[in-house]
Specification:
Layout lengths: L1 H54 L2 H18 L2 H12 L5 H15 L5 H20 L2 E3 L2 E3 L1 H10 L3 H11 L2 H22 L5 H8 L4 H34 L28 H4 L4 H11 L5 H5 L14 E4 L6 E4 L6 H18 L15 H12 L5 H8 L3 H38 L5 H13 L16 H5 L5 H20 L14 H12 L7 H9 L6 H5 L2
Antiparallel strand pairs: 1-2, 3-4
């Protein structure tokens, strides 16, 4: 009897094993068929987007919209989603296969709503994006680029010109405002259709982020940075009030160096631009990355680096095909800000370039958008690092000494200002999607005053929030930049530890292949094989924490 029972158990186990193998074979077949459809469409879409942003031409934007609608049609297929849902629930044993199912399931879930609604979102988003990309601010009848606006806000002592430039930077708000509010309505509608309370909640969960955990992290960030920011802002305001010959209480947003006060103003006697003004910023970035074993020559050869009319006025990195065609779009000038941006975008680019191309297509690329932001931020901050500057720019010891203390202060200021700006963005978007019918013009300035301590202009009632391209086109994304800031500090700590250094300030960056190896092996090659939280533990030895960000302020 016992023998019969054992034989039955063995038979059952074999049957279950065979059933599991069949499920896994069927799941793999589905993934293979989806790869054949999605991979070429995503490549063609990326190329259309690249050409659109490079030229501003209507036909490229139209083609990009068509391809995005076609991709939306693929991802909204209810039959495919049902299969993915079933495979997800079947608890596939092969971890790589199970991860692909999870990644695809989340991508499909967001699109399980009316296809016409999704097409409306895509079409309207493309329309808004084209307006942003071809927008140029106008001051006294003259068109100004984003670089022109920033130059005025950084250098001009003319209060009227500064005010005009700041107001001009907000002209995009009314231009896209109505379409953006329609987008908010459509996004919320699509989120509710698949079981979420609103689009904000959906974006976090589909990005494998717990809304409660994100709120906890940013509440802690608010508490940890509030008092240091108050003290630093007081010092900034005193310097600016003296510069412009006004009382501190009379300072307004146009007295700062950035239209959104997301970057540190020039308030010290050392202006780092003087060290870069006669330099080839792109060549400096190229030399540095090549020196750490991350050659960027092919990336730069395929990239679009300098300003021209109708071109996308900001900067981004794009992985065209997940097979090695990685490019950056920039509008480089010989300034510290563009040195920082070049290092940042090429940080994204080497993450994409050095991925493991033997990985399944859907597991290539970063573990999360904020993990690639962390890498980009890690490298961007070198533009203010005295040791890096000395090696890159051949500074004398005296020049290095002159900037050392002030660059430390500048970097601390930069981190604090951006942390507070990220709190404005996160909390505004959370409230926006929770209640889009409220007075959003007022809500925006309520958040700006609360977190950034900027005084709103008198009688200002404009959709200034809509002038920020991320609010309109990259929704519920901005908090990832700050999460990247937290992880960047954690990477720095882990890198120091791996080199037996007690102080992160002792890390040598230039001509140090160990840095390249650390990122390639620990961060780039794993790609999306693991969730972001598991990847961070594997790379740094601990969970994501704000501890090192605060310590390194």
């Amino acid at each position: 009897m016992i023998r019969i029972y054992i034989l039955l158990l063995i038979g059952l186990a074999v049957s279950c094993s065979n059933q599991t193998k069949k499920i896994e074979m069927d799941a793999q077949h589905l993934i293979d068929s989806l790869t054949m459809v999605i991979q070429p469409l995503q490549k063609e879409s990326a190329l259309a987007y690249w050409n659109a942003t490079a030229t501003g031409e209507d036909h490229y934007y139209a083609r990009y919209a068509e391809l995005e609608i076609e991709l939306t049609g693929v991802f909204s297929n209810p039959g495919t989603f049902r299969k993915l849902d079933a495979y997800k629930k079947s608890k596939i044993r092969n971890p790589e296969l199970a991860r692909q199912i999870e990644v695809l399931y989340l991508q499909y879930l967001a699109r399980q709503t009316d296809p016409e609604l999704l097409n409306q979102i895509t079409t309207l988003s493309t329309k808004v994006e084209q307006r942003f990309n071809t927008f140029r601010a106008v001051v006294d009848g003259k068109q100004l680029s984003t670089n022109d606006i920033k130059a005025i806000l950084s250098n001009s002592n003319d209060p009227e010109l500064r005010k005009k430039a700041w107001e001009a930077s907000k002209q995009a708000g009314p231009l896209v405002g109505k379409d953006f509010l329609k987008l908010v309505e459509l996004r919320n509608q699509s989120a509710r259709a698949v079981g979420f309370n609103n689009f904000y909640e959906m974006q976090l969960i589909l990005g494998e982020q717990d809304p409660a955990e994100i709120q906890r992290i940013f509440t802690e960030l608010d508490e940890d940075t509030r008092q240091p920011f108050i003290e630093m802002k007081r010092e900034i305001d005193q310097v600016l009030a003296e510069r412009f010959g006004i009382a501190v209480d009379d300072l307004r947003p146009w007295h700062y160096s950035d239209p959104f006060f997301q970057e540190a103003p020039v308030v010290t006697e050392v202006n780092l631009d003087q060290y870069y003004q006669d330099q080839d910023v792109v060549a400096l970035a190229r030399r540095f990355y090549n020196s750490i074993g991350n050659n960027v020559d092919e990336i730069l050869k395929n990239s679009d680096l300098y300003e021209r009319e109708n071109k996308y006025p900001h900067a981004y990195c794009i992985d065209i095909d997940h097979e090695g065609d990685v490019r950056v779009m920039m509008n480089v000038k010989p300034t510290e800000a563009w040195m920082s941006t070049a290092l940042h975008e090429l940080g994204h680019a080497v993450y994409d370039l050095k991925q493991d191309y033997s990985a399944p297509y859907f597991l290539r690329g970063p573990a999360h958008s904020f993990t690639t932001e962390a890498v980009a931020i890690f490298f961007e901050r070198l533009s203010k690092n005295p040791d890096w500057m000395q090696r890159a720019l051949n500074l004398t010891d005296q020049q290095k000494k002159a900037v050392t203390e002030l660059t430390a202060d500048a970097l601390r200021m930069e981190k604090l200002i951006f942390a507070r700006w990220s709190l404005t963005m996160l909390n505004f978007e959370k409230e926006l999607y929770a209640n889009p019918k409220q007075d959003l013009n007022k809500l925006w300035w309520d958040m700006v005053e609360k977190y950034q301590l900027l005084r709103r202009p008198e009688n200002r009632d404009m959709p200034d929030y809509a002038a920020k391209i991320h609010v309109c086109l990259y929704p519920v994304y901005y908090h990832n930049y700050q999460l990247g800031g937290l992880l960047e500090a954690q990477f720095r700590q882990a890198l120091a530890r791996s080199q037996d250094l007690k102080d992160v300030n002792d890390i040598r960056y230039t001509d140090n292949p160990e840095i390249g190896r650390f990122f390639i092996e620990k961060v780039f090659k794993p790609g999306n094989r693991f969730r972001w939280d598991e990847m961070i533990i594997r790379a740094t030895g601990e969970k994501l924490t704000s501890k090192y960000f605060i310590e390194q302020l």
